[in-house]
Amino acid sequence: MASFQPNEGNEAFNNSSECFAEKVFKSYDDLIEWVQKMGRALGYIIIIRRKKIRGSGLLTKGKYSKLNDSWTLSVVCEIHNHEPAKDMEGHAFAMRLTDNEFRLVADLSAKNVKPHDILSTLKEQNPENVSTLQTIYNAKTKIWKNEHEGMTQMQGLLSSLKKGVYIYYYRTNNLSTELEDLFFTHPRSLEIWQAFPQVMLMDATYKTNKYKMPLLEVVGVTSTRLTFCIAFVFMHEEKEFNYMWALNCLKSTMGGSLCPRVIVTDRELALMKACRIVFPNSKQLLCRWHINQSVWKRARQSIRREDYWNSFCTRWASLVLSQTEEAYNLNLTQLQTILFEYSGVRDYLHDVWLHKYKHMFIAAWTDKILHYGNNTSNRSHVTAIKASFEYSKGRINHRVNMKMFELLWNYISLEALNMIANEFERCKSGDVSCGCQLRTCYGLPCAHELIMYFNASKSLPLDSIDSFWRKLTLSSPINMRDDDDIHCDDEVKIITENFEKQPRSIKHNILRNLREFINPSKTSVLEPSVHKTTRGRPSLKKKPLKYNGVDAPIEDPHRHSCSNTYELGLSFTNIHEPPRHSSYANQQNYSYSYMNEFPKVLHPYIKQVHNVEGDGHCGFRAIASCLGLHQDEWYQIRVNLMEELETHTTEYGDMFGSEYRFQLYNSLNFFGEEAPLQNWMIIPDTGVLIASRYNVVLHCFSRRASTTYLPLRSTPPPAHERIVIANWPRLW
C-alpha cells in the first residue's frame, strides 16, 4: 500500500505508531473497543471502512485468523493528515451512543425522564461521553420510529395517546381526511383540576411542530401558587369555532360539571368570545404581561428619548395598578400629558386597550373580582404539587408564630399565610388604610378585619379563609375513576338496531370507524398540511357589500331536484354603509331578490341578505354564514351539532326521547355533495341544538311559523349575538 503523502501546504503528523503496534484480540468486539478507546486517547476518531481511501491519514487493518480463532490488528499507514483534536465535542461520530447507552435512553424515556436529565445520567455513567442534548432528541425520535414501525405519523400519534390512557378528540377535513384539530388531556390532570377548578389560564404557543399548528395550553393553579397542565390542543386555525370546539371538548370531559371562576387569556378576540359562549358565568381577565409587552413594543417605536420613555413606563404602570376609578382618571390625565406629542401612542392605548378592555386588566376593576392574584397567563409548570402541600402542613413560619394565627397553622397554604402576615405587618407599621383588596381579590382577611381580631385578642377563624387556600390535597368530591355507574347497554342496543337498517356501504363505513376507534394504529387520518398563517378570519375584500348592505340579485344556482326551498342567512348587525353617490336614492327602492318575501314591517331592520347554495346542506350553510364562516364550511356545523348531541346525551334524551335523538343524529351525519331529504336541517329540533351549541339567539322566519330559540344552559346573549335564518318555499 502506498504511504500517505501530505498535500502542499499541509503538515503530516505521526504520534501513534507505538500505540497501534501489531496486537492480537480474542474477538471482533474487543478489537473495536480497544481501537476506539485508544484513538480517543490520542485525539482521533477511528471509523470502520471496508474500502481503502487514498489520502485518508492513519490506516489500520484487522484480520481474522481461523487457525488461532483471533483477530490481529496491524498499522498500514502511520501518517495523520491533521493534528489531534483537543476535545471530542462536536464530532458526529464521537457523539454517537453505544448500544447500552441507547437502551438506557429508551428505558428512561419510557419513564418520562426529561432529555437533559437523561444526558446527565449518561455522563455520570461514562465521563468520556461527549453526546449533546440533540443526540438525546435524535435517539428519542429513532426509538419512536422503531416502536411505530409500519405506521403513519397519525397512526403512531393516536396509538401513543391511547397507550398513555389519554382522553383525546380530533377533527379531520371531511374531504381530505387530514387532521385539523387535536385535543388531549390525561385523567390525572382532570382530577387535579377537579380539586382546583377556580382559575384557568389559557395561552397559545407556536413553533412546536413542523406543521406550524398553534398549540393551546390550558393551565390551572393550586392553593400553593403552583401551576399544572389541564389540557393541550393542536389547532388548524385560531378562529372562534376552533376555540369553541377545544373548550367544548374540555367541558365535555368533565360532563359539563366544572366552571372556572376566572379565565385569564391574552387579547385573542376569537378565544375571548369562545370563552364567553362556553363558560358564560366565568369572569374574564386579560394577561397584564402580554399587554405590557404589546404596549412597550408599540410605544418604543415612537418614544425615543430616554427620559420620556422612563416617564411613560412609570405612568403606565401606575395607571394599570390604579386602586380606584378616581386614581385611574388622575393617572390617565398624567399619562396623556406625557403623550401630548405622541398622538399615535395615545390613540393606540385608548382604541386598543383602555376604551374596551380596561375593566379586564386595570386594578380598579379587577380588584373587585376573586382571582386569587392570577392576572397573567404566564406558566411555570411543576411536578412538586404534593410536596408543596406537605410543606404547608408541616411548617410554621416565625412571622405567623403568634396566637392570632394559631387556628390557621397547617390548615392553609403558606402562600396565603404570608399574604396575611404582610397585611398585618403593614397595619402594625401605622398604615391602617383598607380598600378590602385582600378580601375581594384573594378571599383573605384584609386590614380592618385583622385589626378587629387583634384588638379583641382573638385568633383568626379558619372559615375566614376562602376554601381555595384551605385545599391542601388533590382529592375531589367526584372520583374520575369511579365508573361503576357508567354503562353503554342502551346506546349499543340503539346502534345495533340502526346498523341493521343501513345500506351496505354505510355499514362498511360504520365498521371502519369502530375499528379505528378500537385500534388507532389502523386509522386513516392523514397528517395535517403545513399552514403559512393560522390567525384571523378570512378576508372579506372579495365580498363587497352593495346596495345598502344587501347582495345584488344573482341568478339562482343549480339546485337539488328535491329542494324547493331557499335558505337565507340574515344578520341584524350594524354594517358600515358604502359611500353614497348621486343615484343612491334611486337604488334604495331597488327590488332585491327575496326581499318582497318578507313582511314590509321587517324591511327597515334587514341590513344584509345572503342567499346560500341549495344542495340539501343549505340550512347548515346559512348557519355557517351567520356565524361569520364561509358557507362552504357547512360540514363544520353538522359536526358541531353532532358533538352537541353526544356531549349532552341525557339532556336531549329526556327532551326528544332516545330513539328520536339517534334519528336526529343520523340526519346530521351526512357529508356527501348533495344531501337527500332525510338529511336536511330539521326545524324546530335542530334550532335548539344551534342555540345551545353556539350560545346565540336563533330566529327562524317562514310563512308558516316564525320561531325563536334560546340556549338551554346559559343566559341569553346580548342582542348583537343573534342570528336569523329564513326558509321560504319558492312556489306556494
What does this structure look like?
- This protein is of the alpha+beta class and 732 residues long.
- Among the domains are: 1-86, no CATH class; 99-147; 306-360, no CATH class; 385-470, no CATH class; 565-578 and 592-729, Alpha-Beta Complex (Cathepsin B, Chain A).
- The protein contains 26 helices and 15 strands.
- The chain has a 7-stranded mixed beta sheet, sandwiched between helices.
- Helix 10 runs antiparallel to helix 11 and helix 22 (618-626) packs across helix 23 (634-647).
- The longest helix has 15 residues, at 28-42.
Percent strand? 5-15%
Q: What is the CATH architecture assignment of the domain at 565-578 and 592-729?
A: Alpha-Beta Complex
- Report the helical percentage: 25-40%
Rg over alpha carbons = 34 Å
**Mean of all residue-level pLDDT scores:** 76
Topology:
Layout: E1 23-25, H1 28-42, E2 59-65, E3 70-77, H2 99-110, H3 115-125, H4 133-147, H5 153-163, E4 167-172, E5 179-185, H6 187-195, E6 199-205, E7 215-221, E8 227-234, H7 240-253, E9 262-265, H8 269-278, E10 283-286, H9 288-300, H10 306-320, H11 325-338, H12 343-357, H13 363-366, H14 385-394, H15 414-428, H16 437-442, H17 447-455, H18 467-470, H19 489-501, H20 504-518, E11 565-570, H21 584-587, E12 609-611, H22 618-626, H23 634-647, H24 649-656, H25 658-668, H26 685-694, E13 697-701, E14 707-709, E15 722-729
Parallel strand pairs: 6-9, 9-10, 13-15
Antiparallel strand pairs: 1-3, 2-3, 4-5, 5-8, 6-7, 7-8, 11-12, 11-15, 13-14
Helix pairs in contact: 2-4, 7-8, 9-12, 10-11, 22-23, 23-26, 24-25
